[in-house]
Amino acid sequence: MKIHEFQAKETLKKYGVPVQDGYAIKELSELDKALSSLKAAGINQFVVKSQIHAGGRGKGKIYNADNRAELVLEGGVKFTKDENKVREYAEKMLGNILVTHQTGPEGKKVKTLYITEGLDYKKELYVGILLDRAVSKNVIMASTEGGVEIEKVAEETPEKILKVWIDPAIGFQPFQARQLAFGLGLKGTAFKNFIPFIMKLYNAYEETDASLLEINPLVITNDDRIIALDAKMNFDDNALYRHPEIAAYRDLDEEDPLEIEASKYNLNYIKLDGNVGCMVNGAGLAMATMDIIKLAGGEPANFLDVGGGANKETVANGFKIILSDPNVKAILINIFGGIVRCDRVAQGVIDAVKEVNVTIPVVVRLEGTNAYIAQDMLKKSGLNFEVASSLKEAAEKVTAVIG
Ligand code: ADP
Ligand code: MG
Question: Where is each ATP-grasp fold succinyl-CoA synthetase-type domain found (predicted)?
């Protein structure tokens, strides 16, 4: 699960990580209060930050939500010393569409703004923590090339990214924190401040069951404090039950409506751009099915894993979700009857097709226990199924009907 920058900062603050404070607002009417609170703290330069679940906001563009051709503002993060400008930026961002290199051309609607202090600083750094699956250890990455696209640094000058791997048995060691600080070329007070910063940051990552924690940029202020200016946190969905306060941060506005619907039925659904709807049991088989559809010249419209125990309800719900995608022109059902028997799945498919009133071609491939009975049931159902006996045949049939 992803959360917004202001929520990530709220979380990090609980773990003692120095972050830049601010006020999240959803309405323009809340702006004055945010501004006067900042001014009361002696702050006289401000940053208005669009809150969307995507990065690259600083270099993004704001378009009018009612007229997508109209460019309203260059940049989804704006620095100013002028209070009137704060208001102008807030008006231009709130309710409009922010397009960044991470959102795709459709962009994302800005529904929340974060109003913060505009900081003066002498250096921008990068720090990221995530799980390195290749070695089954968390890795902390740091770079002096903060603020810019770290993907570019990783590609063009990988030597500029330092990495330390954390042994899960002994945890993050102070010498490793010093290794990073030396590597970043820090000295004196900045060096001293970096050590507790990174130790606390790692602790926050671990304690919250985060799957990614990225600070880009991390800044060294003119008086050598280390502060997180931006914060991105993703969490392991399977551990969210342990963190109700983080689960409560979920912002459904940022998620695909069909994916939200699927999650209600415990279906693992990811929407894609093609036109062949797929219903499969098991994530591995679902991946293989998508691959073979592509091999046959088609484009999958989704990933859908209905789980090991596919029954009539899951099949019916899966159908409804696949059919809600207007791009879907045909459906391929590929179920392996291991735990579940194929004849039961076939009955589920027949009932669901009758109930949901499916009008597009459906190709079914059932393999495993009682597969031959299932094929017979589908053929005799009087419904318009294309039955396939191998995965290859199924993929060829479904791409052929689309043409
Ligand atoms: P994104 O990564 O989505 O572009 P950031 O929060 O990193 O958003 O902001 C983009 C850039 O804006 C930063 O790299 C920094 O240069 C500048 N910036 C962000 N917040 C502040 C701030 N509080 N004070 C000064 N500059 C800021
Ligand atoms: Mg950033």
Answer: 2-220
pLDDT tens, residue by residue, 45-95: 999 999 999 999 999 999 999 999 999 999 999 999 999 999 999 999 999
pLDDT in tens, 123-147: 999 999 999 999 999 999 999 999 8
Q: Give the Å distance between the CA of 28 and the centre of ligand 2.
A: 24
Return all residues near 186 (Cβ < 8 A) that are at least 6 apart.
194, 220
- Alpha-carbon distances, residue 52 vs 253, 325, 401 (angstroms): 10, 24, 40
306 found inside a domain: yes
Backbone angles phi, psi at 359, to 5 degrees: -110, -10
Residue 388, in any domain of the structure: yes
Whether 147 lines ligand 1, by a CB cut-off of 6 Å, is yes
pTM as predicted: 0.82
pLDDT of residue 64: 97
Catalytic pick among 145, 214, 367, 386 = 214
Task: Please give the distance, rounded to the nearest whole angstrom, from the Cα atom of residue 309 to the centre of ligand 1.
Answer: 47
Domain range enclosing 295: 257-402
